[in-house]
TrEMBL record:
Belongs to the UbiA prenyltransferase family. Protoheme IX farnesyltransferase subfamily. Keywords: Cell membrane, Heme biosynthesis, Membrane, Transferase, Transmembrane, Transmembrane helix. GO terms for biological process: heme O biosynthetic process. The gene is ctaB. This is Protoheme IX farnesyltransferase. The lineage of its organism: Bacteria, Pseudomonadati, Pseudomonadota, Alphaproteobacteria, Hyphomicrobiales. Carbon 2 of the heme B porphyrin ring is defined according to the Fischer nomenclature. Pathway: Porphyrin-containing compound metabolism; heme O biosynthesis; heme O from protoheme: step 1/1. PROSITE patterns: UBIA. It is an enzyme of class 2 (transferase). It comes from Lutibaculum baratangense AMV1. It is a multi-pass membrane protein. One of its GO terms (cellular component) is plasma membrane.
Amino acid sequence: MTLRQLDVTASAADLARGGEIGDYIALLKPRVMSLVIFTALVGMLCAPVTPHPVLALASLLAIAVGAGAAGALNMWYDADIDRIMSRTRSRPIPAGLVSPEEAFSFGLTLSIGSVLVLGLAANWLAAGLLAFTIFFYAVVYTAWLKRRTPQNIVIGGLSGSLPPLIAWTAVTGSISLAPVVLVAIIFMWTPPHFWALALVRSGDYERAGVPMLPVVAGRAETRRQILLYSLALVPLGIVPAGIGLGGAFYLAVSVALGTVFLWLAVRLARGGEDGVGPVAKRLFAFSILYLFGLFAALLVERVAGLPSLI
């Protein structure tokens, strides 16, 4: 795998001139990392114990760095298709700002370091979950699923779903139902979120040979699948209020946001092809607000000391 990838990205290596700090930060996928930090923070604060502030900060930092390390390894492996896609061709490796060897070493070093720090600062169960997350994203999703199956996002979404569970485990040392529900919400959110983007960028994925659902099954089937996943996601988003994790405020927010999410998914499923692009863009943008809103509602309740419904 290593030799193949290095051969494919040889031209980028020839252009690389030694990356600056900003280029290495870009390898970490900071926008994805920000979502990881936020969901992990909420998972940590929802736990039934109060962690030591220093250990909590160290744990969050380790989780964030681990997510960034997985992103760097993803960019290393995918540099060949990143050069083809307009959305990704300006990334550090295809742009010639960082060599493939440097990106791989950077990602691998941060992966090992983040797992060790989390194990020492918190516990080895949380560290094991973080190691699994990095491996799943970099190897199972990136190297195996992404170029082989249109279910790449569905299965691969597990890696992006685990941060709340890792953070919960970091402060409690155990796994319980509440963080698993948060994982399930993110897991079910991922397909409609990314498939909405794929509808807009299907030409990019087709040129790169990535079998995203719109490329393999067509746009109509993709819109149908988005609706089906949305129908499962929205009720699931309300579940935290029924298990004592969320209160009345969370219930109101989840119902309101879920109603809008479903409305957009129905519009996308029933609309004509001429309107797919604009509605898909709106659904993609709103899906980010939806997930942020759910976790923000939990955070507000914890900070304000609002009671749960159970």
